């Protein structure tokens, strides 16, 4: 696993040696960041990397010019490696790392009955859960609620990007509209915008 573009290009990243995470393949990562770059969602933007694991996606965003990235990860071993990866890539000063459940951290940043402060709004939210989304039918409502919670932090021109399986039906979180469903082999990327701005 390595950074594939930007200021930290080529730097190898530390990862956990087990099946509890889903590292993104270089080919899919390259496609994702090509799409984001073309949409102007990298240079001088604010980002969130939710279910960040060891930080692969958020570090790629920082390397390619994101101004700031907030990382959220529950596993202590992943958080430790994430911090080491930020130091290796010399991107730690533009990062903020939270250890905890995604929903809990998001509620701490902005309660459900209040709008997120402007300093917490993001142009890019990367949502890459470790579970296989197509198998989570019993908890789909909870997953969509968490996506909706994350979507509250989007700026007007922002995008929330979910990585899931091609076989999975794209979620329909409240307040968000699916703007693009990109597929490659067994993989899919769902790009969401705030519903009030959807075409």
Q: According to CATH, what is the class?
A: Alpha Beta
Lateral strand order in the biggest sheet: 3-2-1-4-5-7-6
Distance between the termini: 37 Å
Could you list the spans in which at least 5 consecutive residues all have pLDDT below 50?
none
CATH fold field value: Rossmann fold
Helix- and strand-based class? alpha/beta
CATH architecture assignment name: 3-Layer(aba) Sandwich
What is the makeup of the main sheet?
A: 7 strands, mixed
Give the tally of structural domains: 1
User: Could you tell me the mean pLDDT?
Assistant: 88
Morphology call: globular
Number of strands: 7
What's the total helix number? 5
Q: What amount of the residues lies in strands?
A: 25-35%
Could you state the order of secondary-structure elements as H and E? HEHEHEHEHEEE
Summarize the structure.
The protein is α/β, with parallel strands linked by helices and 199 residues long. It is built from 5 helices and 7 strands, in the order H-E-H-E-H-E-H-E-H-E-E-E.
List the helices and strands and how they pair.
Elements: H1 26-38, E1 46-50, H2 56-63, E2 68-73, H3 76-88, E3 95-99, H4 102-109, E4 122-127, H5 140-151, E5 154-165, E6 176-184, E7 187-194
Parallel strand pairs: 1-2, 1-4, 2-3, 4-5
Antiparallel strand pairs: 5-7, 6-7
